[in-house]
Amino acid sequence: MVCTDSHAHLSLVREELGDEGLASVLAAYSEAWSACDKEGRPGPLVLDPGVEPGDLASRLELLGKEGVLPPFLRLAAGIWPSAESLASPGTSLAALEASIGAAHARGFRVAAVGEGGLDYHHMDGSKAAQAELFEGQIALAASLRLPLIVHTRDAAADTFGLLASARTTSPVIIHCFSYGLEEARSFLDLGCWISFAGNLTYKGSAALREACAFVGRDRLLLETDSPYMNPMPRRGKAATPLDVERTYRLAAELRGEAVEALAETVSRNARSLFG
């Protein structure tokens, strides 16, 4: 079963599995999309996020032909809080905006801004620098009227605070959600979507599972975060979007839903966000 993957780093999948590995993923989604199209229903999507200010052009070249992507694929552009990007947040943000502008000038529009946010686990820069880089992306998403894909690790309170202060009108996706029910309630109260990854299947994920069972159908997404977070029983192996089905099956069980119905729900949510 080929399912929508709301967050997969396909260029990194290629690094891990080579050209053939990436090609097999794209072929499987193309086949699934065509089959659904023949049946008159939308097929599964894959959203490929950005992590560096200038990586949009290279990803578009890798995944598209002459600036045209396969119908199941969407690209975002954003800045993960790395040491390099945090060394000069203003410079990084200017480069990101320029790369998006260049793509738009060529007739290609990104589907979202991100992933960007706060990471207090790796802590590759000060909290102030991380906030500056994140706030810049919140503002950019608002100005472009695009969804915002948020990375947040060990930083729930500050992530919530910056989003609440910004009062952004952009749709906000909390990707690879790693908190519990209380945090889920808070982000949902802000109007956020919540996306669960393969760690939902890991031992000791009781808080995540409780949150997944709680999130309303209209605010739920599922992802791999490929090539990371491969769902059990392949934890530790490089993941691709084809692995996301196992996360769907557990999420469906937790929520008391049929997996086919859950797949339709998540695909519908992804299309409403990313087009």
Could you tell me the strand content as a percent range? Answer: 5-15%
CATH superfamily: Metal-dependent hydrolases
Widest sheet: strand ordering: 1-2-3-4-5-6-7
> Would you identify the regions where 5 or more consecutive residues have pLDDT less than 50?
none
User: What is the top-level CATH class?
Assistant: Alpha Beta
Number of helices: 10
Shape from CA axes? globular
Using the CA coordinates, give the radius of gyration. 17 Å
Helix content: 40-55%
Q: Strand count, sense and closure of the main sheet?
A: 7 strands, parallel
Number of domains: 1
Class inferred from helices and paired strands:
alpha/beta
By DSSP, the count of extended strands is: 7
Order of helices and strands: HEHEHHEHEHEHEHEHH
At CATH level 3, the topology is TIM Barrel
CATH architectural group: Alpha-Beta Barrel
- The termini sit apart by 22 Å
What's the average pLDDT?
96
Architecture overview:
Helix content is 48%, strand content 12%. It has helices at 10-38, 56-63, 83-86, 89-105, 127-144, 156-166, 181-189, 206-214, 244-255, 259-274, and strands spanning 46-48, 73-77, 112-119, 148-153, 172-174, 193-196, 220-222. With 275 residues, the chain is α/β, with parallel strands linked by helices. It has ten helices and seven strands. The two termini are 22 Å apart. The mean pLDDT is 96.
